């Protein structure tokens, strides 16, 4: 693991670079080259690109393995250009600048809906949390900060046509840290919640997540307590928009409430208010003709009013009159008038929007009270802010919300350029480089919008406050009269735009920094007023609900004792004030930027729409940012890092440089012969003016690395040879020692054998001499005995003298004893000799027959050892396991592979018996897919480990499918695209294969758009690349005029679809596809 991290850490921004990692180095710089670079990196899953210290993030629409703990450790403490671009790099830079230098930081995340802003903010929070310590108190604070996201996402996010989890509010979070770099608290600020979504959503979009989560995830007991039912019973939500993840998300929200510190009573109160909004939406009104001829209204379903009153602890009569009547006070007079059915519906919707908006604000304040920093430590804290706010929005129909959002982006673009230029200037001054001021930003658009005297916002507020008949048309007329001459304002009343049919009569157009946007003035006045009828606020104030009623409730202005009421500030005034406060806050912090880009509108991976990305690049001002960075010096690097990277380009700095780093850089640049006007020496950095200079250095470095690699190879091969020589030398010494030992042993055995032979001959000679002596002594004794017997009688012998006869007798006695001993010795020697001769004879017989016995014994012993070792080293029972122990016995070489085959067949049999019928079908399909695509389709290896799911979109449980009914069982179902052959347009649809036909269904209505029977499919064509393109060839009918041609599809699981079609045709027609 350590070696892996070291290898990863040695890779820098410029190594193995796909495209250009830093757009400042693009050459030449143009919009097309910028887009091509983004597309190239996106296609290689390099979703991050630098523009200086700005990170451009492209939403991959798939999970990438680049966010784990190893990646966090890799980027910990690294400089910006040491590693490839990543969101962790900017997070680490901001965190270290705050911790080490005590500078407050801000990370601004911008982009349009669906570009990945929310996920980017989560990754920043994840990285910062990983950097801090693991104490109990710190972990508690980190969990509270992290768990605020699920709560705010549930109440402030919704599914739109562009994003399944779109933030419908702006959020700025200040995270406060102590001197150790551990979080001690935070503060969240929210901006402009899209409260109109509560009562009305566009086609294909959802209401806020919390409504569906309560209806799908709450227990029956909780639903009964909240007087709720199924999704189909409520008009503010659509039953087809609910999904299975809502129940799981509701449990996560409840857990997040507990972690943050909400009491059970507070959670119940919040859920009651959400349920009350749903119930209020079900209240219907009918028109009633009054006696005076005016139109009045009445409530159709009073049971829902009773339920709402019970939930909110409001009197039924009070709520009914508040919804159907309006009371106006002028001086001392009070007038009550009855509303029409349409006005009452509008009044009901206004109440629901205001309740939900104020509930969301209360949630943010309640979270702030849990995560706020204690007052005694507040002065010692450093701050890191994370801004996740709306991106620039341009729709076919742009209204009040888009105008305010784009005004916010104008302010952010202004501060972005100002802070970027300020940062550049500070670095140049710090490094002693001459700075030339660059004026890039034109403030005329901001003046047009927020000018206090004749700006659009001022005119909007003035029109809302003006007495008399105020409509959207009068607002447009006033804007045309006041702002008509401004160079960035366009309307049809201006002479030069009279013939412009692209500009409607009820709209005006503003030239923003990102392009022209047309705004329809419909509902501008109503949305800006931001006020409720007095009746509704009074009714809410009198509620006994702990959050809704009372002076500390959501409607304090409804207190009946207050007779003099100030007009509530307009939405534009509040938003303008909050933007001013935000800008002041950002100007006090060191900025860091993450620019998020949405690659396509179909939310698919590997799809890059150049026109869509081009539009975002323009309104994000990315090229302008590149030009600002390149206005001075395109690249800068610390002297130490420069010497480390390019030291092989000069003989003075290679392999080690011990002098000053700046002098080493000078040696390198002089040796490469780069013109002095292409670079500048700072106090701690080298500044390179043109990207070509950097690329030239990289080319020289690549060539030098080739030579260095050759030298390293030479040294390594020499070391390998030296090590091999040492091993051979050691082996030679061991072999020589053993040979000498063997030779000396053999010499010793020969000497020992020769000595034994000599001993035998000497002992034999001694025995032979002894036998001759015994025979001689025996003869002497016999002679003496004869003499004594036969000669003593005839001739009397003389009595021997004592001196002569006695020694002779003693000698004879001694000789007799010695004779007996020698006779015994002879018998022993004879016995041993006979035994020796017998052993010699038996040894011949033993050598002739004992070898076979020993050989049979050794063979059995070796076979026993072989089987014992084989038993202990058997491989696993997996059929794909290819390992098999080696056999070192030559006489078993023929049996060894046979045993391997027998074992493999046995474990295959065991595996087959353990397979379930479903698993057998899966493996059959995988085998069929291998026969079709192995070695032919580039995406086949990646699809191999993935199971064939079949119904990827759970269409079989879809109620619309069950109602429509297409006949047959579903074999395969997935989201895909049908491509028109005429214009190449992608049309999203469901691709469904049943046991009889191939169907293309509409994703929303599940109605058939195309029907091809299985018998009519003649073949399928694929490209060899990693894409989901496929062409289904259809047999032409008898009437060729009705033949629509082949189907061109783009399906994510195209290999699975083709495999199932092929198997289906083989079963039905017995012919291969």
From TrEMBL:
GO cellular component, one term: myosin complex
The keyword Nucleotide-binding belongs to this UniProt entry's keyword annotation: yes
CDD domains reported for this sequence: MYSc_Myo1
Biological processes annotated in GO: actin filament organization; actin filament-based movement; endocytosis
All copies of domain TH1, residue ranges: 937-1073
A Gene Ontology molecular function term of the record: ATP binding
Domain Myosin motor: 18-702
Domain of life: Eukaryota
Family classification: Belongs to the TRAFAC class myosin-kinesin ATPase superfamily. Myosin family.
Stated name of the protein: Myosin motor domain-containing protein
Organism: Ciona savignyi (Pacific transparent sea squirt)
């Amino acid at each position: 693991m350590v070696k892996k991290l070291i290898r990863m850490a040695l890779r820098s921004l410029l190594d193995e670079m796909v495209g250009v990692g830093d757009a400042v180095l693009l050459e030449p710089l143009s919009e097309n080259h910028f887009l091509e670079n983004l597309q190239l990196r996106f296609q290689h899953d390099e979703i991050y690109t630098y523009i200086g210290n700005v990170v451009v993030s492209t939403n991959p629409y798939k999970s990438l393995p680049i966010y784990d703990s190893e990646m966090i450790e890799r980027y910990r403490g690294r400089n910006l250009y040491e590693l490839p671009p990543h969101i962790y790099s900017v997070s680490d830079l901001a965190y270290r600048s705050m911790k080490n230098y005590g500078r407050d930081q801000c990370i601004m995340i911008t982009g349009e809906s669906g570009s990945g802003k929310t996920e980017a903010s989560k990754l920043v929070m994840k990285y910062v949390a990983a950097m801090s310590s693991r104490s109990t108190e710190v972990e508690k604070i980190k969990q509270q900060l992290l768990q605020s996201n699920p709560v705010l996402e549930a109440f402030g996010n919704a599914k739109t046509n562009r994003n399944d989890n779109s933030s419908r509010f702006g959020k700025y979070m200040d995270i406060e840290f102590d001197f150790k770099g551990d979080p001690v608290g935070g503060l969240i600020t929210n901006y402009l919640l899209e409260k109109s979504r509560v009562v009305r959503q566009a086609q294909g979009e959802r209401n806020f997540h919390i409504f569906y989560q309560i209806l799908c995830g709450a227990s029956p007991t909780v639903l009964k307590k909240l007087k709720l039912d199924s999704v189909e019973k409520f008009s503010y939500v659509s039953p087809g928009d609910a999904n299975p993840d809502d129940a799981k998300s509701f449990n996560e929200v409840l857990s997040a409430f507990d972690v943050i510190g909400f009491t059970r009573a507070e959670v119940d109160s919040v859920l009651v208010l959400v349920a009350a909004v749903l119930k209020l939406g079900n209240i219907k009104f009918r028109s009633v003709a009054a006696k005076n001829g005016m139109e009045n209204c009445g409530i159709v379903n009073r049971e829902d009013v009773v339920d709402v009153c019970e939930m909110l602890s409001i009197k039924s009569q009070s709520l009914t009159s508040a919804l159907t009547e309006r009371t106006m006070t002028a001086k001392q007079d009070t007038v009550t008038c009855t509303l029409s059915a349409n006005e009452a519906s509008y009044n009901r919707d206004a109440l629901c929007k205001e309740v939900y908006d104020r509930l969301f604000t209360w949630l943010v304040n309640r979270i702030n009270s849990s995560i706020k920093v204690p007052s005694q430590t507040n002065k010692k804290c450093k701050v890191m802010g994370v801004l996740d706010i709306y991106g620039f929005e341009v729709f076919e129909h742009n209204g009040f919300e888009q105008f305010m959002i784009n005004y916010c982006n104008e302010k952010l673009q202004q501060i972005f350029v100002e802070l970027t230029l300020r940062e550049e200037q500070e670095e140049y001054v710090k490094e002693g480089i001459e700075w030339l001021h660059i004026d890039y930003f034109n403030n005329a658009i901001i003046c047009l919008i927020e000018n206090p005297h004749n700006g659009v916002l001022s005119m909007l507020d003035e029109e809302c406050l003006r007495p008399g008949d105020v409509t959207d048309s009068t607002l447009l007329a006033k804007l045309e009269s006041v702002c008509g001459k401004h160079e960035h304002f366009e309307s049809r009343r201006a002479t030069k735009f009279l013939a412009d049919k692209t500009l409607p009569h009820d709209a005006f157009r503003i030239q923003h920094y990102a392009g022209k946007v047309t705004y329809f003035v419909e509902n501008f006045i109503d949305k800006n007023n931001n006020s409720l009828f007095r009746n509704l606020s009074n009714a809410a104030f009198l509620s006994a609900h702990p959050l809704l009623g009372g002076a500390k409730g959501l409607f304090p202005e409804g207190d009946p004792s207050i007779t003099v009421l100030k007009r509530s500030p307009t939405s534009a005034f509040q938003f303008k004030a909050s933007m001013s406060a935000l800008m002041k806050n950002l100007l006090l912090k060191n900025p860091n930027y993450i620019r998020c880009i949405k690659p396509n509108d179909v939310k698919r991976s590997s799809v890059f729409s150049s026109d869509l990305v081009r539009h975002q690049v323009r309104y994000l001002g990315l090229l302008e940012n590149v030009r600002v960075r390149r206005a001075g010096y395109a690249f800068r690097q610390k002297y130490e890092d420069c010497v480390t990277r390019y030291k092989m380009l000069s003989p003075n700095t290679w392999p080690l440089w011990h002098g000053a780093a700046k002098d080493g850089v000078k040696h390198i640049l002089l040796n490469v012969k780069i013109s002095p006007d292409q670079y500048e020496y700072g106090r701690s950095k080298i500044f390179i003016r043109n990207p070509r200079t950097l690329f030239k250095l990289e080319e020289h470095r690549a060539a030098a690395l080739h030579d260095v690699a050759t030298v390293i190879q030479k040294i390594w091969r020499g070391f390998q040879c030296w090590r091999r020589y040492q091993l051979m030398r050691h082996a030679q010494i061991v072999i020589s020692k053993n040979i000498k030992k063997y030779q000396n042993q053999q010499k010793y055995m020969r000497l020992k054998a020769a000595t034994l032979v000599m001993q035998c001959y000497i002992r034999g000679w001694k025995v032979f001499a002894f036998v001759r002596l015994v025979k001689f002594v025996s003869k002497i004794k016999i002679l003496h005995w004869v003499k004594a017997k036969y000669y003593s009688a005839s001739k009397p012998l003389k009595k021997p003298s004592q001196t002569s006869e006695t020694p002779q007798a003693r000698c004879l006695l001694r000789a007799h004893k010695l004779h007996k001993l020698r006779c015994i010795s002879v018998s022993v020697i004879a016995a041993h000799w006979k035994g020796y001769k017998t052993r010699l004879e038996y040894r011949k017989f033993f050598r002739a027959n004992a070898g076979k016995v020993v050989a049979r014994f050794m063979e059995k012993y070796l076979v026993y050892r072989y089987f014992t070792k084989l038993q202990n080293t058997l491989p696993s029972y997996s059929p794909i396991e290819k390992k098999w122990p080696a056999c070192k016995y030559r006489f078993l070489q023929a049996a060894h592979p046979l045993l391997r085959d027998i074992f493999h067949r046995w474990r295959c049999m065991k595996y087959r018996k353990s397979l379930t019928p479903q698993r057998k079908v899966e493996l059959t399909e995988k085998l069929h897919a291998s026969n079709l695509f192995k070695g032919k389709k580039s995406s086949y290896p990646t699809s191999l480990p993935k199971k064939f799911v079949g119904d990827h979109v759970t269409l079989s449980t879809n109620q619309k499918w069950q109602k429509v009914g297409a006949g047959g069982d579903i074999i395969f179902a997935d989201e895909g695209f049908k491509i028109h052959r005429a214009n190449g347009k992608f049309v999203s649809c469901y691709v469904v294969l049943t046991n009889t036909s191939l169907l293309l269904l509409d994703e929303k209505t599940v109605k058939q758009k195309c029907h091809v029977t299985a018998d009519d499919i003649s073949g399928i064509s694929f490209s060899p690349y990693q894409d989901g393109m496929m062409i289904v060839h259809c047999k032409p009918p008898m009437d060729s005029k009705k033949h629509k041609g082949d189907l061109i599809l783009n399906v994510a699981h195209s290999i699975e679809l083709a495999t199932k079609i092929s198997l289906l045709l083989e079963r039905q027609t017995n012919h291969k596809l």
